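RECORD CONTENTS
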Amino acid sequence: MGIFEFLFGNQQKKRADYLKKGAVILDVRTDREYQSGAIKGAKHIPLDTLRNHVNELKNLNKPIIVYCASGVRSAKATKFLNLNNIDAINGGGINSLKSIIN
């Protein structure tokens, strides 16, 4: 096992496990970024409005995989959701998550 597989392989497995559980894919990029292309079926809630959607996301009763352009905003969103008792993981950047979903 290489160092990258050791460091990131577990995260890929976790994303795949969440997908098997019927996870909601959440895009926290800006409206403009979302309109330029998104993962098919992703729910779009920009990071700066996420706090207004906590109850909506809780009511989904599903785990959530969060993504953005690079993984930085999705990490912030994931931490916020976890602090609000929502089962969420960071899916990273759109391109890395697309490779797992497609």
Q: What stands out?
A: The chain has one domain: 12-101. DSSP finds five helices and four strands in the chain. Strands lie at 24-27, 43-44, 64-68, 88-93.
